[in-house]
Amino acid sequence: QSALTQPRSVSGSPGQSVTISCTGTSSDVGGYNYVSWYQQHPGKAPKLMIFDVSKRPSGVRDRFSGSKSGNTASLTISGLQADDEADYYCCSYAGTYTWVFGGGTKLTVL
Amino acid sequence: EVQLVQSGAEVKKPGESLKISCRGSGFSFTDYWIAWVRQMPGKGLDYMGIIYPGDSDTRYSPSFQGQVTISADKSVNTAFLQWSSLKASDTAMYYCARFDYTGISGHANYWGQGTLVTVSS
Predict the structure, then answer these.
(1) Paired residues of B26 in beta bridges
(2) What pLDDT, in 10s, does the model give residues B24-43?
């Protein structure tokens, strides 16, 4: 499987909203409602932010939301805060015990 | 508290073998799939494979099939990732993660702290 396509970088000012896209194919993103998003700060392990396209794990603020349309999933972060600055990765189920990650997006809070 | 604790950093030479570990605690280790994820320096995340310690059912990403071996010892709540002959291109951070399933798929809800593997002559 090829990696899912994400923009290399996005940016926004504190308080604004940003959206990160994640484009795959009908064999992964488009074929299943199993997209997850991970936040990774430098030198740290990834952290789950969204699963099953739009569900938030306990403890994740509702400023983070997910959606999907066709072969493209999106992560929206509203009310940007300085601590949101990190790398974000999408991940999609791609069939029997197979998952594929996106290339990652660096979010800069201006 | 759910925890995944990985073994420490390793420095190896090309051609050497290596086995790194991931010990789980705070949950029933045999009831969850454990995945391994690679992150090469400055790069993104790569799914390597997954194991169910309850019966050692193991599945590999096609990109990693034959390149690594994933195993588990449920008596000590530990999953392993091993190489028989390391290459310089295996230099990376390796994470284990507990997959929580909803329906037919899972997501990595808990992560280990990572094990840095450096392969250099």
Answers:
(1) none
(2) 999 999 999 999 999 999 99
